[in-house]
Amino acid sequence: MLTKIIAHRGSKGIRPENTLPAFEKAIEEGADGIETDVHMSKDGHLIIMHDETVDRTTSGTGRIYDKTLMELKQLDAGSYFGYEYLGTRIPTLNEVVQLLIKKKFTGLFNLELKTDKIQYPGIEEKVSAYMNQQKVSFQIVYSSFHPQSLVKMHALNPSIEYASLFKVQTKFARKFYRSRIVKDWHPDIRWVRAHRFFLPHVQLRPWTVNSSEDMRYCFKRHFDGIITDYPGRAGIIRQAI
Ligand code: G3P
Ligand code: CA
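Structure tokens predicted for Glycerophosphodiester phosphodiesterase (241 residues):
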């Protein structure tokens, strides 16, 4: 089985993360999957960004949840990465999904609900209502560091695949896995390497697998996938194994 290469926040290593250019690049580089993060704006729009605040990657400051979509759209989300990306905007979930549909993407779409630091009221219902309306040819995998979010999502969509995200596996995480809501583990690669842990029934997709050594480690063990900032480089390494 060929390990899937999943682009972390798009091709984050070479494009401004979680922007349309980063997702376009991931597709161009032949990524088997795309990972991204969703939050909610003050006026209830589903917003694609990693952090809870806009400070690190945009021209603005403050929390996503304290801004309207119109306010978020005025920010520049590209120039932090390089002047050539000046004018790149924060995308909505709809814009990302429509891009994947337009590009005829048929891989894995891993949507992480960023609900571990802020509890956005109703985000699970909104994500699931929106995604269920779309006619997509890609496979959806929902993940979160916040198990309660996955429980809610699973109650709404029991047939979709769920992944448990963790840095360190706790007793609770193991119990949660046994609940059978989650089929996949998306652990920190450092945890995987420290524990050399591998359960045959769990689809393992560690993050963030960026070094050649970590990539080879995962490819040789035939993990289901890796989540990487460099899908292009990962493809070359996978081919050479
Ligand atoms: O989904 C894997 C990875 O994205 C989780 O960590 O902080 O990059 O969202 P983070
Ligand atoms: Ca993420």
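Residues 35, 37, 112 surround calcium ion (ligand 2) (CB under 6 Å).
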